[in-house]
């Protein structure tokens, strides 16, 4: 029944428009949306689940798991389910904002009307967008780093990633999940050095991330994430995050003079436990909590 209604949808739209036939939606119509919102991640060898959206042929081919569009059936197409958030994680991974209702409706119409190719060759490639940096004098926000997380991290750190559930439950699919500190804080706003996320992408904490590296993140990408955290881990609107005071921390690195971890000052007190005779020059794991003054209050140091 649903497919029958969708088949007649263009006719009904034409009647509502006073008998004027509405042109069929084509790939030419959705290509600009793909270019601006999707191909940042869904392009090249690192495309999540092998789904490339750089041209019509790749879109119709789908992912390694399944086709993502079913001609004449928008509601049964995984692409639409992802754009609407019916299937998770919702796309694009850099949202919010996600696609507007009008943009999603355009995709639905294109699928309902039979996946019309348009005037361009089906192999016509959508150009990928370069990494965006803030304008001079402006802070780094989540909007600048979200594409990096989406391209290199979310393929595993999502609810239904390549490794099944996200490793250690850490999700990098939204601003809220990235800053979540329920189990422990991986991002400490204002302190990249105390942020496990940064230590992982630098290789100070092992294994180095992304797990499918090398190649790992470039120095430019790492610096953008470091600047974002040091500037307060601001959301897409530029609002800084609150400090997760009291949250658990788990960091790895080289123990230095005066109780430092790769130059990060540590607070070691009478209650701190030092295992395996850990000393200067040892590669160690530090467990502790974030103090009210932003310093790492050590509970345990052990040699790795």
Automatic annotation (TrEMBL):
Residues in Cytochrome C Planctomycete-type domain copies: 38-92
Pfam families according to UniProt: PSCyt1
Keywords, ordered alphabetically: Signal
Taxonomic superkingdom: Bacteria
Signal sequence, start to end: 1-24
Full protein name: Cytochrome C Planctomycete-type domain-containing protein
Originating species: Metapseudomonas boanensis
Lineage per the UniProt record: Bacteria, Pseudomonadati, Pseudomonadota, Gammaproteobacteria, Pseudomonadales
């Amino acid at each position: 029944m649903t497919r029958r209604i969708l088949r007649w949808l263009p006719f009904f739209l034409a009647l509502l428009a006073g008998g004027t036939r509405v042109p069929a939606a084509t790939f030419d119509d959705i290509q600009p949306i793909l270019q601006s919102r999707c191909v940042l991640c869904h392009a090249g060898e690192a495309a999540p689940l092998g789904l490339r959206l750089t041209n019509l042929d790749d879109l119709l081919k789908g992912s390694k798991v399944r086709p993502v569009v079913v001609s004449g059936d928008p509601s049964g197409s995984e692409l639409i389910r992802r754009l609407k958030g019916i299937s998770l994680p919702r796309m694009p991974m850099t949202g919010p904002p996600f696609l507007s209702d009008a943009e999603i409706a355009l995709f639905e119409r294109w699928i309902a009307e039979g996946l019309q190719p348009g005037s361009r060759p089906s192999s016509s490639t959508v150009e990928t967008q370069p990494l965006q940096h803030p304008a001079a004098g402006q802070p780094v926000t989540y909007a600048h780093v979200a594409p990096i997380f989406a391209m290199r991290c979310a393929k595993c750190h999502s609810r239904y990633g390549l490794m099944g559930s996200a490793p250690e439950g850490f999700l990098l699919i939204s601003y809220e999940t990235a800053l979540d500190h329920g189990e422990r804080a991986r991002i400490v706003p204002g302190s990249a050095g105390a942020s496990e996320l940064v230590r992982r992408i630098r290789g100070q904490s092992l294994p180095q991330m992304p797990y499918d590296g090398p190649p790992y993140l470039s120095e430019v990408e790492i610096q953008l994430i470091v600047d974002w955290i040091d500037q307060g881990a601001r959301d897409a609107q530029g609002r800084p995050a609150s400090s997760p005071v009291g949250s658990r921390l788990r960091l790895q690195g080289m123990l230095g003079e005066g109780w430092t971890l790769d130059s990060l000052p540590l607070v070691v007190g009478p209650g701190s436990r030092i295992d395996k005779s850990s000393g200067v020059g040892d590669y160690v794991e530090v467990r502790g909590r974030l103090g009210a003054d932003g310093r790492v209050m050590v509970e345990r140091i052990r040699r790795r």
